[in-house]
Amino acid sequence: MSDARGQSKDPGETSQARLTRRRLLVTGATGAAAAYGLSAGGASARGLSSSIFKSTAAGTVTFGANAADTPVPLKALNQSFKAFTAKTGTQVKVNAVAHNQFQEQINSYLQGQPDDVFTWFAGYRMKFFAEKGLLSQVDDVWATLKPQFASAFQNASKGSDGHYYFVPSHAYPWALHYRKSVFAKNGYTPPKTWAQLIALCKKMQADGLTPLAFTDKEGWPAMGTFDIINMRINGYDFHVRLMGGKARWDSPQVKKVFNTWRELLPYTSEGALGMLWQEGATQFIKGEAGMYFLGTFVGQAFPAAASKDVDFVAFPAINPKWGQDSIDAPIDGYCMSKKSKNPTEAKQLMTFLGSAAYENIYLNSDPNNFGANKNVNTSKYTAIQKKSAALVAKTAHIAQFLDRDTRPDFASTVMIPAIQQFLNKPEDVNSLCSSIQKQKVAIFGS
Amino acid sequence: MATDVAAAGQADGTPREGRAVRLSVRDRIALALMVTIPVIVVGGLIWFPTFASIALSFTSWDGIGGITTAKWIGTENYHQVATIYPGFWPAVRHNLIWLAYLTFVATPFGLFLAYQLDKELRGSRMYQSIFFLPVVLSFAILGFIVQLTYSQSQGLINGIFGTNVDWLGDPSINLWAVLVLVGWRHAGYIMILYLAGLKAIDPSLREAAAIDGAGEWHAFRTVVFPALRPINIVIVVVTVIEALRAFDVVYVVNKGRNGLELLSVLVTNNIIGEASRIGYGSAIAVILIVFSIIPIIVFVWNSFKETEPA
Amino acid sequence: MTTVATTEDTRPVRKRPLSVSRIILHAFLIITALLWLAPVAWAVFTSFRPYADTAKNGYVSLPHTLTLGNYRRAWTQGDIPLHFWNSLIITIPAIVLILLFAAMVAYVVSRFSFWFNVPLLIFFMAANLLPQQVIITPVYQMFLRIHLPTWLSESGAAYDSFIGLIAINVAFQTGFCTFVLSNYMKTLPKSLTEAARVDGAGVTRQFFGIIMPLCRPAFAALAVLEFTWIYNDFFWAVVLMSSGDKQPITSSLNNLQGQFFTDNNLIAAASVLVAIPTILVFALLQRQFIGGLTLGSTKE
Questions:
Q1: CATH code where residue C139 lies
Q2: What total of structural domains would you count in chain C?
Q3: Residue A1 forms part of a structural domain
Q4: How many CA atoms lie within 13 A of A60 on its CB side?
Q5: Which of A250, A397, B199, C170 lies at 20 to 30 Å from A443 by C-alpha?
């Protein structure tokens, strides 16, 4: 589901991230290393597990990371863990899995032998596991953390029973990106209302640009557009009710969202269903597309020089009643599993992960997110980071993105195909909405 | 052929010779162990889960918290799958298209290749290796090759022909694009099977047909093809099973969405991952089982006829 | 009737005069072979090109430079040695167990005449023909609950363990080998075991001492086949293995996929590395491999 959002990507990165992070079976590990001539490079970097046993010795904590395929955040994690160990003496053993795979295996992972602490997301996705009794409460950790976080982040970290289950780390807003040079050259101004947006798109199209870069091969990027149009037209409360299964999907409000969205489609990239978000980013940064509505993680795909040219605004207002009062700003962070074998050390680690000190280290390598902690060092922030933090701070309502705000089975088995179907046949809104509603009833129960 | 020494005969384990051979107790224990251990492994890991899947298909369960949290809902899952699941009927259609394509295009082409390579040709071994190469590759790699070949902006096909077709993103053509490369693999597999069958045909049969003065196609139709009957059954079953088992390639390309839906992928998407709709996914799995049973029965029955001593 | 056929032509090669039809045939075969190799050759070609080159000039272009850099990075970033070792840990014990189990069942079914012979064969062969998706949920629920001592499984359960993956592969593949071996064993003369039996050898001795050694060619062929199938599988690992460092090699492609989607060059290099063992095995043991496919005239 949620793809590489919030994960830094650096094509030039080498295997430094590998240091200390692998556990190996003792049997044959050295043999394997010799057999494959690993004496140069990686092998020496691997620590042999001193025990085969999953339960680690006191003074260690295990950490599950959805970052095996993203060396830069992984390196950041390892660096920060070094700092943690230096401070507390507790060792951290990292289990890294490719991020998509980690998320897909989460159900069996949590019921099996999960690590003490693991990367996860705020929103329904976290509340759901808390309800199922798979997460540990971390109220005591929050006793010290509470003053360091704005209320929006506090609320996002609670389960439906009011207890804390999550420690936030970083977040990023979904915004309308544009290139300053392109806008300056053609005399465009960033749109503040829907009418201005459409007018700008027409102009861009006349100038030979694709007005809005747009991709949806993975199925989730388009959810951002649905979310924001829904919040703009129908307001945040309706959006929350809809996500929670308390509103009808064949209601006139939802149909209006799709019908409004349809106006935008002629101005979006061709062949969107065959492209990944990084390909949209390529179109955008090459100047072939004028704007790109995506999370600020899109910066990972930009070469350093070009990213200085990028700026963003909040998505235009549609209904003046709501203005621009809502935004999707997914929060990434950490949870503690219920079956944690080292609860004291785990809570130690969670406290550390909620601290500004940790975020400072992490954000060094991942400048496309901003830190959740109030005390994070913003002096090194890029322009985008500063603006992201400011935008989220001043927006009244924060949502977590469709696939984190609603039931995961609804998001993945119903909404992804539904939105793709909409993109293939945008006129067919009535039958689409009634189909979604029927499936929603089947899943939510009402 | 050593059928005459096959251990067939009377039902009590006595060999053909007719002498009553009593198996000692130790022998019986040994034979029992030889059979029961594999039976337990296969029964426990394949058959038990199969029946469990069938049972689960009548429940609503999210897979968490133990089987006792599963709720019995009768045939509700099946009803939903057939009526409100937008991906189901397209998946059935795609599986059938897959089957038709393999049956009428890929398999015949494999047979054609096998027939040509069966002639005394120079380099026949080399051709065999080349045509068989895709079969040795993992489906994950096959999926990657599909991307590399068909990517709209960076793919080989659009690059060579200067076109801009959205091979993988356009739901009206992406299945066909994938099938081309699937056939590429399937034909090689079929070719090897047929080659073996062709080699087993008595050469005198073919010479007789050739002497008849009949044309090549006539000889093939009246002599070679009928003689290939045992292999043909195998080929049919293999083709059907491959069509039903199809999963890896489309999953790697785009997780089986937007025109690439298949029954196996629907099962996976509902069961694996955060969706975790166990009962629902199991219902689709049972439908898949039902479709698979027919060729399985055909194959097994045919083999049973084969293995039964004359 | 299944024969131990190989694709070695034993008929005397008659020198045929080059006829027009022959020339056309050769031309057809050459063109088809080239087309056949094209996708793979394309992937290999892409793997040697640096990312900067293809990003600038596109993939369908003449190379300005060629590099091994993709291979180096695939090796380290994809952690190929570790995952290859994991694949071996799973594949080799699985093959041994599969052949052992299959031989045992084949022996009983082919050398004796019990009432349950045919049902037993059906039991095993049908198991092999089911799609994998049909049994995933119960299997992983079972694996979560089967507790194993930690010296057998680091995770303490069958889930997320090599034992678990080996077990499911064994269960899944035994059917095919049973069928092939039972056909093969039927061709072994009864007189051999008869002599041993008369001498007082029990079935165990007959099995291990006489039948098994005679089955060596079949074992070799089946081992090659099974290696390819188990090594190439990626479905079981995705479902049943949650530790990153225990994933088999098909998942190292996964680790590179998520990060550098556009870096097809890197993934191409990784694909080549992943494919090399099976291609090598196939190339070196081609005769046995092809022979193995035809031993039972059946499929996985």
A1: 1.10.3720.10
A2: 2
A3: no
A4: 14
A5: A397
Residue A212 β-bridge partners: A268, A291
Mean pLDDT lowest among A53-67, A391-405, C108-122, C133-147: A53-67
Residues C27 and C21: their CA atoms lie apart, in Å, by 10
User: Smallest Cα–Cα separation from B132: which of C294, A1, A340, C91?
Assistant: C294
pTM for the full predicted model? 0.82
Q: What is the ipTM of this complex?
A: 0.82
Structural domain of A146: 15-172+332-394
Q: List beta partners, residue A62.
A: A93
Interchain contact B74–A (C-beta under 8 A): no
State whether A319 and A289 are in the same domain. yes
Q: Which residue is associated with the tokens 């080399």?
A: B126
Of C9, C105, C121, the CB nearest to B307: C121
CA distance C161 to A108: 13
| Contacts B171 to A, Cβ<8 Å | 273, 424
Are C57 and C162 contained in the same domain?
A: no
Burial degree of B98 (CB within 10 A; 0-12, 13-18, 19+): buried
DSSP A121: E
Of B140, B184, B200, the CB nearest to C36: B184
Q: Which two tokens stand for residue C159?
A: 């889930």
Provide the CATH number for the domain around residue A293.
3.40.190.10
- According to DSSP, the residues that pair with A120 across neighbouring strands are A333
- Please check whether residues A63 and A204 belong to one and the same domain: no
Could you give the 3-state DSSP secondary structure of residue A172? coil
Q: Residue A4 falls within a domain, yes or no?
A: no
Decide if C235 is inside a domain. Answer: yes
Contact A67, C255 (CB under 8 A): no
Pairwise CA distance, residues A28 & C82, whole Å: 11
Identify the structural domains of chain B with CATH numbers, from first to last: 16-55 (no CATH), 79-307 (1.10.3720.10)
A383: which residues sit within 8 A by CB, 6+ positions away? A308, A311
- pLDDT per position as a tens digit, C103-148: 999 999 988 888 888 889 889 988 888 888 888 888 988 888 888 8
Residue numbers of the domain that contains C58: 20-65
B221-230 residue pLDDT tens = 777 777 777 7
Q: Which residues of A touch C84 (CB under 8 A)?
A: 36
User: Between B64, B152, B174, which is nearest A132 by CB?
Assistant: B64
DSSP state of A158: B
H helical segments located in C146-260: 162-186, 190-198, 203-205, 212-214, 216-232, 235-240, 250-257
Indicate the angle between helix axes C264-284 and C80-111, nearest 10 degrees: 40
Binary contact (A420, B87; C-beta < 8 A): no
Q: How confident is the model at residue B304 (pLDDT cuts 50, 70, 90)?
A: low
Whether C152 and C286 share a structural domain: yes
Q: Is residue C43 part of a domain?
A: yes
